Amino acid sequence: MSTASKPTLRERLIAAPITPNQISLTGFILNVAAAGLLFEKLYFLAGLAFIVGSIMDTLDGRYSRMSGKGTRFGAFLDSTLDRVEEGIVLCAAGARFAAEHNQVAVAATVAAVLFSLMVSYTRARAEALGVECKVGIADRPVRVVIIAVGLVFGAGASLGHFSLLAASVYVLAGLTIITTGQRIVHVYGQLKDG
Fold first, then answer.
1. What is the fold, at CATH topology level, of the domain defined by 19-191?
2. Structure pTM?
């Protein structure tokens, strides 16, 4: 009498009719929706779309590794879409601030976009030179949390003319500038003798 064993999680993932790229693209679509909702001042819904989209961005890599369905292009697509998603949501915030004539918040948004990209770029460039570079306080999960808090509490927790969306962008700009500096110093320390 033989008993059929239950399929393992890995076996079920391999059999599932979904690819890591589909998960990545779903996250991208949700972040585009978050940007549109933000521009329409639907802050809480924008925050929810951003959070779910960001969760998808976390799942695609894990699913890729667990299911064995990952490809080199999929890894490239995942990293590229992560940068675009963060940028598009921040650009929508910048457009919202511009519509409200909040020049300081617009400038902070530009800095947050630039230095969020620099945090990722410094790591990628360092790793291309053979230096591991995961140092710094504003890695992707931290940036996602800061943006999510700003979106979810964008209007409902405003303090006069100072909403948590603007505050989150100021914090994000500051932390990404610091993190870029931390990574430059780290790589300099690793390569100065080489």
1. Four Helix Bundle (Hemerythrin (Met), subunit A) (1.20.120)
2. 0.84
